[in-house]
């Protein structure tokens, strides 16, 4: 697997097929075990996206 990391300042989300958009400060990415209460698998590592304040 070839993973390329890039530097970003913000992450822009678009809510489905609506016109609702959200811009959040990007704090980084890591690989680890996510929160199962949020839908992460218990026994597998996942990408964790760290977000800051809503811009």
Q: Can you put this structure into words, describing what you see?
A:
This protein is mainly beta and 55 residues long. Helix content is 0%, strand content 47%. It is built from no helices and 3 strands. Strands 1-2-3 form a 3-stranded antiparallel beta sheet, with no helix packed on it. Strand 1 and strand 2 form a beta hairpin. The mean pLDDT is 91.
Secondary-structure blueprint of this entry?
Elements: E1 10-14, E2 21-32, E3 46-54
Antiparallel strand pairs: 1-2, 2-3
Order of the strands making up the biggest sheet: 1-2-3
- The strand count comes to 3
Order of helices and strands: EEE
Give unreliable regions as ranges. none
Radius of gyration: 13 Å
Which structural category do the helix and sheet elements fall into? mainly beta
As a percent range, the share of strand residues is over 45%
Short description:
With 55 residues, the protein is mainly beta. The protein is built from no helices and three strands.
Annotation keywords:
3 strands, mainly beta, single chain
């Amino acid at each position: 697997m070839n993973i390329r990391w890039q530097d970003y300042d913000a992450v822009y989300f678009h809510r489905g097929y609506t016109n609702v958009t959200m811009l959040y400060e990007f704090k980084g990415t890591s690989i680890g075990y996510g929160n199962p209460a949020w839908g992460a698998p218990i026994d597998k590592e996942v990408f964790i996206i760290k977000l800051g304040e809503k811009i």
